[in-house]
Write a structure and sequence with these properties.
The protein is mainly α. The protein folds into 2 domains: 186 residues, MFS general substrate transporter like domains (Growth Hormone, Chain: A, Up-down Bundle); 211 residues, Growth Hormone, Chain: A. The protein contains 20 helices and 2 strands. The protein has a two-stranded antiparallel ribbon. It is found in: Membrane.
Length: 473
């Protein structure tokens, strides 16, 4: 995320920063927390429904997790008021290790104890909603305006590192297993250790007031209202026209996770699942960072960047859902189990890679959208809470229905396909406003151009410094 010393609009980008106070350092810490907590959680899911032979139980547990996350996300901004954004991040990391370590997935895999699945899922859900809100707000607010897209791609890379690591470990331990079934229980011991370090890593995050940015602007993510006023403000924000219009787009984006992980668990051998986890993580990292770089291209108007990214993602998603729909309809009757040596593997396997990549692209693009909707620093936290809570609600539904065999095999793919189709027009009504105020590229105009009120908002400090809260230039 290299910076120029002075932008073409005359804004300084070379204010001195200490490396341990810089936005890059803080996004790196955030990424490491993401790797240790949801990244490793994703690694377990990337083994194919948590490595379980049957995805039904694990999907039911995941549904419970996301149901509780809806609640914890909703009240996260209240918690931020009392313990700050850094405290919320630390708190949020605490519940992930029990998901694996409190005899949840590990004991079920090793001893068949099912009730621990639900205990671990509940503990994870209570803390994870707070973590998701805190990390989203930090990722949006900490980076300089010209680095937001690259910072988002860099941060989300760490989540995929968890999936890559999970696939690599699983592949190494199970490379000779060309049949369906559970993964080796030794894998969980590694995951437990990695998830336990999350809270300690979070301590190294700088509080917003201590962050030093290259543009010299301060970061402020404090919540000052009383709890009841904060709850009302968050609720009011949810019912705004712009947020309601993107609900379906959020849904089609995150609904897919349960669908493609269940697809992997149902139709592939253990070592093929490991290969899928490993390769899809690498591809998703590459494509996600390329998208982030594109969204930061100041030489291209915000209008062009936002519209082109939206339509590329929408069209690709449609193609992949058509492919997946054809395959699962066929698999429903043929009930195959594909190994990498099986005939037809090259036809069935790539769609998992593409759907995982699409999830990464959608995820990053959601932050781009939300970052351009916030009106002030408090709204960054509230929008982050609403985004993550909405994601959790959709994922609770997706993991819940994929715990039913019919939906696991075909129904969830059909639902996601329909969601994609229904989401395009409402989301477009919001996206088409980005940069739609006669904005020209910075290089062409030589003047600072900022998007419409939908795109970004500026605050002015008593000293006259201008702060770009969420928007892109």
């Amino acid at each position: 995320m290299a910076d120029q010393e002075v932008a073409t609009d005359g804004e300084r980008r070379d204010y001195p920063t200490k490396w341990y106070r810089s936005s890059l350092f803080n996004i790196t810490i955030l990424g490491l927390c993401n790797f240790s907590a949801p990244g490793i959680w994703g690694a377990m899911n990337s083994l194919g429904a948590g490595g379980s032979q049957s995805p039904n139980l694990v999907n039911a547990g995941n549904s419970l997790t996301f149901c509780l996350m809806v609640v914890s996300c909703y009240f996260s901004s209240v918690l931020v008021r009392y313990i700050g954004i850094k405290g919320a991040l630390i708190f949020g990391t605490l519940g992930y290790a029990p998901y694996a370590a409190d005899k949840a997935l590990y004991c079920n895999n090793q001893f068949g104890t099912e009730w621990f699945i639900y205990l671990g899922s509940a503990l994870c859900g209570i803390s994870a909603g707070v973590f998701w809100t805190a990390e989203a707000a930090i990722a949006i607010a900490y980076p300089e305006p010209w680095n937001k897209g690259k910072a988002l791609g860099y941060w989300l890379t760490y989540s995929r590192f968890g999936q890559i690591l999970g696939g690599a470990i699983n592949l190494g331990l199970n490379a000779d297993r060309d049949e369906a079934g559970q993964v080796s229980h030794t894998v969980y011991l590694v995951f437990i250790a990695l998830q336990c370090i999350g809270p300690f890593v979070a301590f190294f995050l700088n509080s917003p007031s201590k962050v030093q940015r290259k543009d010299g602007k301060k970061v402020n993510l404090a919540i000052l209202q009383n709890p009841w006023a904060e709850i009302k403000a968050t609720t009011k924000l949810f019912f705004t026209k712009r947020f309601l219009l993107i609900l379906l787009w959020i849904g089609q984006s995150v609904f897919a996770e349960a669908v493609y992980f269940t697809y992997l668990a149902l139709w592939f051998t253990v070592r093929a699942r490991a290969l899928g986890s490993f390769l899809s993580g690498i591809v998703a990292v590459i494509i996600g960072n390329l998208l982030g770089t594109w969204l930061d291209r100041a030489s291209v108007s915000l209008r062009t960047r936002s519209r082109s990214a939206f339509w590329v993602i929408a069209v690709l998603q449609g193609a992949w859902w058509i492919w997946a729909t054809i395959l699962v309809t066929e698999f429903r009757s043929s009930q195959p189990t594909y190994d990498w040596t099986s005939p037809g593997f090259g036809r069935a396997f790539p769609v998992f890679i593409f759907l995982t990549t699409g999830f990464q692209m959608n995820y990053l693009f959601l932050y781009f959208i939300i970052g351009n909707l916030a009106d002030d620093e408090s709204d960054v936290v509230r929008y982050a809470a609403l985004l993550r809570g909405t994601e959790s609600a959709w994922q609770a539904i997706s993991y819940g229905i994929t715990s039913v065999t019919l939906f696991a095999e075909v129904g969830a793919v059909y639902w996601n396909f329909a969601l994609w189709a229904a989401a395009i027009w409402p989301a477009w009504l919001v996206l088409r406003e980005f940069g739609n105020n006669g904005e020209t590229s910075i290089e062409q105009s030589g003047n600072e151009k900022i998007g419409s009120p939908v795109d970004s908002v500026t605050n002015v400090t008593p000293q006259g410094d201008k702060i770009i809260v969420g928007g892109y230039r």
